């Protein structure tokens, strides 16, 4: 294992070409088990072992802050990110980031000159782009290191000595990417399937088109589906004893005319006790497990948890929430929306969450 | 014009949309014909404000007059802020004979007794509603016209609607209201919303309610499915039945556009699938909020489409039945501002 | 052509003109005739239709009277066997009969009541009317079991439903409660209707004040000669009545309210509906 302090970032280059058929098969398997670093992908022993590690590590906050530059972490937990998936990048090199910074700056300047409206928060003079590697995020040797992109600018009428402000930021990551898939990539491709952006829409689309032109990739919007939202609700609730949830808030929309929105906010302690009650039944069955937290979370438990919450609701209102769509889940640890917006408020659970989203991105990708 | 009057006018012009500014000024009637004609409403808000300030200066208008203009605007556009309903209780024998002039005098004198510096304006609107604007001060400061309280009351009815009232001043206002309407008490009606007309119509029962009668009138939106020959009679009957029950619970046609309802639930978790939680002593605490552009219509659709089971649960039908949109639900009967979990009908 | 030779050229010419004109008008006459013929046809059809209607009506009446006489007569109502619409006619007759019954039912103060919740409750409809015009209908859903209790209604909040229920002891005297409530509702509907008629019929009388319950009415009259204004307050203290219990006049001319003429007007206002009282006052020239 490389030292996290290693200054040269690694771009895993895989020569092993796995047949397409097996790749898509592994997709389906991971989908069936319903995603997530903590999901029980008990299909291949190797995989299960790796996943088990990741879920355990996510709960130890010290590890992450020691590994990852705190400034970078601060940026990641600060904003709400709009997610997209990205197909593998061709000829992307982590060693070339300085050059990419220059290229993207020039690209934005050229677009601006062509009359494309690149006006962000009033008039801006010029944009400076910075690419950097977020060291220590990768969970396995197969994962490419996370790349952070920031765009700085200075307001038109700012004083000379005023520092440039960050007006846009984004990142590309791959955490616990499906190894079968990663190995199947032809030489020269780097897989960073999850893209998050925060800032003006204009800049987002400029960055996307530069990536498309430069690395022959394509972007697509990434919704966080019902299952993933339920997973996040359960994962966050599971953390309550270490780091308070404050509340577990879920928003459903019911397809009636006019549309009805139901916001269901549960007391954190009660949510946790309900969660533990659905976990406990499972624990009874497998007492040989050494430690509660180390044990994987199963999709069945997540379903039972949500079912419990829904049945409590139904008992009062006789209204079936399953008829609607879960739109949003939020706790003090983070919030996720169906539209593909995510905010991770606590650095402790960033890895688990991003691993789940990496799986979503890989699933959504057309190739 | 003093500084307070200028500031109020500036803020008011900023708030009134350009296209309604002219009619609002006309209704105000404080501008001379020539002055009215000299106003160019295509100008910027800033220029209009300057122009109006000059005219007000010229006509020697005061803070009182500007407050009048604000009142006209608020009466025409009441849906901008949060309105709360209050309910007067235990009327005195002469409560029904309180008329406007008497009410005005009484209210002003009672409130002035309670607060030293207070500015009150009372105006009767065309729909029989009495509008009251109160700018509050205290023993040391003059009334603050930038944060007025508005009160709407229909004489001889038990309901009062207020907006812009802080809890500190609530006691003073309610006391003055109770005395001047000849009642003995007042309470929070647990109904609030941005649309004054909606909460008023709901409490005044000014919408089409549906009752099981001998000669049922064909309900307006009576199931469109009926034209589909594939749906068998039994299904059509069920759906018609659901529709009837949905309308009996929420009403028919256009309903008051209530936008939300909140339930604070503190009830035991009961689920035969989950023994651990069912055996737990403490209730499960949660808050459920329903929101829609027209909540009652959404809920009616939920019930008629089968997303919500019929007959409609008393928790939901209580919204129109009791005219409330805030409920505290516990297992142990009513506490303050709460409601029993057990259905009452 | 003799006439022509004896009377001269001009008269001959005019004769020719007349002839020519008559010749031209002949086809016109022709079309007029067809027009009239068509009209005759149309009228004939209409006549037949009316005759048929009369026939139907007569049949209906015959049916009605026999229906009214009693259905106990075992042999059913005789009908012209050829009438293919006999079934329809029978239904129509039944319909008119029921409508009349319903009307009579309302007239004698009956209420429409139906059972709800498998007999555990009832829904009562109270219709209001003013001078033969049906106005709003109000409904009450009343639980009978386990206890008599009003569960739902659409009566406006300023009608004291609950205190009426208590006063009349609804638990045991449902009828008394419904009568009192109906009286209140009819009085309210009546006052509202009177105010509406007043506004329509007396544009010169200004309504200074009114309230949702229509229990207080402040009107402003103008006395024709002196052009003085009279402020008249009608106080409907008894909410179950359409007539005010108190009439108060205010005028700059202090003598006016005490004048015999205006005293008479006051009692008129207390005895007759406001809009008819005003018509009378206007007729004698007391108000504009």
UniProtKB/TrEMBL annotation, chain A:
It comes from the Eukaryota. Keywords: Centromere, Chromosome, Nucleus. Signal peptide: none annotated. Residues 1-17 have a biased composition (Polar residues). It is found in: Chromosome, Centromere; Nucleus. InterPro entries: CENP-L. Belongs to the CENP-L/IML3 family. This is Centromere protein L. It comes from Stegastes partitus (bicolor damselfish). The lineage of its organism: Eukaryota, Metazoa, Chordata, Craniata, Vertebrata. The gene is cenpl.
From TrEMBL, chain B:
It comes from the Eukaryota. The keyword Nucleus applies. GO terms for cellular component: chromosome, centromeric region; nucleoplasm. InterPro entries: CENP-NAC/CAD_complex, Chl4/mis15/CENP-N. GO terms for biological process: CENP-A containing chromatin assembly; chromosome segregation. It is found in: Chromosome, Centromere; Nucleus. It holds the Pfam family CENP-N. The keyword Ribosomal protein does not apply. Keywords: Centromere, Chromosome, Nucleus. Belongs to the CENP-N/CHL4 family. This is Centromere protein N. The gene is cenpn.
From TrEMBL, chain C:
Keywords: Centromere, Chromosome, Coiled coil, Nucleus. The keyword Hydrolase does not apply. It comes from the Eukaryota. GO terms for cellular component: Mis6-Sim4 complex; nucleus. InterPro entries: CENP-O. The keyword Nucleotide-binding does not apply. It is found in: Chromosome, Centromere; Nucleus. Signal peptide: none annotated. Its main location: nucleus. Residues 33-63 form a coiled coil. Belongs to the CENP-O/MCM21 family. This is Centromere protein O. It comes from Stegastes partitus. The lineage of its organism: Eukaryota, Metazoa, Chordata, Craniata, Vertebrata.
């Amino acid at each position: 294992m490389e030292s996290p302090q290693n200054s040269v970032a690694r771009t895993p280059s895989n020569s092993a070409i796995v047949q397409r058929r097996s790749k898509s098969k592994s997709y389906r398997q991971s989908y069936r088990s319903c995603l997530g670093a903590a999901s029980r992908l008990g299909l291949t022993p190797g995989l299960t072992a790796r996943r088990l590690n990741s879920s355990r590590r996510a709960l130890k906050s010290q590890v992450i802050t020691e590994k990852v530059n705190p400034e970078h972490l601060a940026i990641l937990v600060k904003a709400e990110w709009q997610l997209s998936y990205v197909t593998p990048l061709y000829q992307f090199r982590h060693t070339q980031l300085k050059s990419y910074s220059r290229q993207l700056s020039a690209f934005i300047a050229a677009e601006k000159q062509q009359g494309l409206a690149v006006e962000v928060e009033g008039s801006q003079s010029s944009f400076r782009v910075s690419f950097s590697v977020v060291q220590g995020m990768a969970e396995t040797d197969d994962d490419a290191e996370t790349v952070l992109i920031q765009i700085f600018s200075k307001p038109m009428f700012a004083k000379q000595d005023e520092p440039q402000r960050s007006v846009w930021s984004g990142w590309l990551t791959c955490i616990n990417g499906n190894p079968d898939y990663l190995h199947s990539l032809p030489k020269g491709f780097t897989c960073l399937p999850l893209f998050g952006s925060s800032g003006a829409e204009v800049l987002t689309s400029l960055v996307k088109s530069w990536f498309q032109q430069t690395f022959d990739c394509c972007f697509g919007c990434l919704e966080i589906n019902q299952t993933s939202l339920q997973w996040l609700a359960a994962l966050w609730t599971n953390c309550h004893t270490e780091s308070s949830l404050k509340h577990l808030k879920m928003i459903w929309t019911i397809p009636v005319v006019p549309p009805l929105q139901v916001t269901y906010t549960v007391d954190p302690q009660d949510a946790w006790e309900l969660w533990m009650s659905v976990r406990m039944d499972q624990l009874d069955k497998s007492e040989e497990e050494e430690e509660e937290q180390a044990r994987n979370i199963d999709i069945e438990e997540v379903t039972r948890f949500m079912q419990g919450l829904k049945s409590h609701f139904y008992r009062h209102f006789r209204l079936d929430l399953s008829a609607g769509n879960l739109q949003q889940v939020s706790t003090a640890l983070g919030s996720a929306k169906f539209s593909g917006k995510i905010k991770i408020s606590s650095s402790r659970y960033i890895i688990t969450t991003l691993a789940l989203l990496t799986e979503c991105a890989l699933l959504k990708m057309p190739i | 014009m003093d500084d307070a009057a200028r500031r109020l006018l500036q803020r008011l012009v900023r708030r009134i949309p350009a296209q309604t500014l002219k009619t609002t000024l006309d209704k105000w009637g404080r501008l001379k014909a020539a002055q009215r004609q000299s106003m160019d409403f295509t100008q910027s808000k800033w220029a209009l404000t300057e122009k109006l300030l000059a005219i007000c200066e010229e006509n020697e208008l005061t803070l009182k007059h500007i407050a009048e203009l604000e009142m006209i605007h608020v009466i025409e556009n009441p849906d901008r802020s949060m309105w709360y309903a209050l309910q007067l209780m235990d009327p005195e024998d002469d409560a029904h004979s309180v008329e406007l002039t008497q009410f005005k005098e009484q209210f002003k004198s009672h409130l002035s007794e309670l607060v030293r510096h207070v500015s009150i304006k009372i105006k009767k609107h065309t729909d029989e509603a009495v509008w009251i604007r109160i700018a509050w001060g205290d023993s040391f400061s003059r009334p603050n016209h930038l944060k007025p309280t508005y009160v709407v009351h229909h004489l001889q009815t038990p309901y009062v609607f207020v907006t812009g009232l802080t809890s500190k001043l609530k006691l003073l206002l309610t006391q003055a209201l109770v005395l001047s309407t000849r009642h003995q008490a007042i309470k929070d009606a647990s109904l609030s919303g941005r649309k004054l007309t909606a909460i008023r119509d709901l409490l005044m029962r000014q919408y089409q309610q549906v009752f099981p009668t001998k000669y049922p009138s064909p309900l307006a939106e009576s199931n469109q499915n009926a034209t589909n020959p594939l749906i068998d009679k039994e299904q059509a009957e069920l759906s018609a039945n659901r529709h009837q029950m949905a309308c009996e619970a929420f009403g028919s046609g256009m309903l008051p556009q209530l936008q939300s309802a909140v339930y604070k639930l503190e009830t035991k978790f009961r689920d035969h699938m989950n023994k651990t939680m069912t055996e737990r002593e403490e209730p499960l605490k949660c808050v459920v909020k329903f929101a829609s552009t027209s909540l009652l219509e959404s809920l009616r659709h939920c019930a008629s489409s089968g997303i919500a089971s019929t007959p409609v649960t008393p928790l939901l039908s209580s919204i129109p039945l009791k005219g409330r949109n805030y409920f505290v639900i516990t297992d142990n009967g009513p506490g303050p501002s709460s409601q029993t979990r057990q259905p009452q009908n | 052509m003799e006439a022509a030779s004896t009377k001269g050229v001009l008269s001959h010419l005019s004769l020719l003109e007349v002839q020519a004109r008559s010749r031209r008008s002949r086809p016109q006459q022709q079309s007029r005739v067809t027009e009239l013929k068509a009209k005759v046809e149309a009228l004939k059809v209409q006549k037949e239709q009316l005759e048929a209607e009369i026939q139907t009506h007569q049949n209906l009446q015959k049916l009605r009277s026999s229906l009214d006489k009693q259905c106990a007569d075992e042999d059913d109502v005789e009908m012209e066997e050829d009438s293919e619409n006999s079934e329809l006619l029978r239904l129509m007759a039944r319909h008119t009969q029921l409508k009349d019954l319903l009307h009579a039912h309302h007239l004698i103060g009956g209420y429409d009541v139906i059972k709800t919740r498998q007999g555990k409750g009832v829904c009562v409809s109270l219709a209001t009317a003013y001078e033969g015009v049906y106005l709003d209908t109000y409904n009450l859903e009343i639980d009978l079991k386990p206890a008599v209790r009003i569960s739902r209604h659409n009566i406006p909040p300023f009608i004291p439903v609950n205190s009426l229920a208590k006063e009349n002891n609804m638990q045991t005297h449902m009828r008394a409660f419904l009568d009192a409530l109906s009286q209140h509702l009819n009085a309210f509907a009546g006052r509202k209707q009177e105010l509406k008629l007043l506004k329509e019929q007396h544009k010169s009388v200004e309504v200074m004040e009114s309230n949702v319950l229509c229990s207080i009415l402040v009107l402003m009259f103008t006395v024709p000669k002196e052009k003085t204004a009279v402020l008249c307050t009608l106080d409907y203290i008894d909410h179950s009545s359409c007539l005010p219990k108190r009439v108060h006049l205010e005028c700059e001319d202090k003598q006016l309210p005490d004048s015999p003429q205006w005293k008479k007007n006051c009692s008129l206002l207390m005895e007759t509906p406001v809009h008819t009282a005003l018509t009378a006052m206007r007729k004698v020239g007391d108000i504009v």
